[in-house]
Specification:
Elements lengths: L8 H16 L20 E8 L9 E6 L4 E2 L6 H10 L1 E6 L9 E11 L2 E12 L4 E5 L3 E4 L2
Parallel strand pairs: 1-8
Antiparallel strand pairs: 1-4, 2-3, 2-5, 5-6, 6-7
Length: 148
């Protein structure tokens, strides 16, 4: 019923000659992306907190996030109800996985400006970056206090 089949050394060697180039094609330094391809399914967002002198959340009327290298505005991709929620808790997104592919394996400086009644009350720079999968925070003040 079952037959054992022996593989000759010649057939084995020929098979290896075809298989090795397949593995090598995935390991050629600069020609292939050096990311391992294993990413988590989470969506990451870098946020900052803005509080007043008493520690209460500050509700901005609007804010802008600018890539300082080219003055392009980076959209946060949030809807009105999400913005209302962020205003309520005084936490604002400055960089997210919306940009993980655009800035992949790069670090950039962004500028956050916050406004109340069209008056700028926050102007802070942040260093952020993106690896193969997600964005990450490098530097900048994560908790801001407005007022005396």
């Amino acid at each position: 019923m079952f037959r054992s089949k022996r593989i000759s050394m010649k057939n084995f060697s020929i098979s290896i000659l075809f298989v090795i180039p397949l593995f090598q094609s995935c390991m050629k330094g600069d020609e292939v992306d050096d990311c391992n391809g294993i990413c988590t399914e989470e969506f990451r967002t870098i946020t900052i907190e803005i509080k007043d002198a008493e520690g209460n959340p500050v509700a901005l009327d609007s804010f802008r996030v600018i890539n300082t290298a080219n003055d392009n505005e980076l959209s946060t991709g949030m809807n009105a109800s999400e913005f209302d929620y962020f205003r309520e808790i005084g936490t604002y997104p400055i960089f997210s996985d919306l940009y993980s592919q655009e800035f992949r394996k790069r670090e950039i400086t962004i500028n956050f400006k916050g406004f109340i009644d069209e008056v700028e009350i926050v102007n802070e720079n942040y260093e952020v970056g993106a690896d193969c999968c997600h964005v990450y925070y490098i530097s900048g003040e994560g908790e801001l206090q407005i007022g005396e």
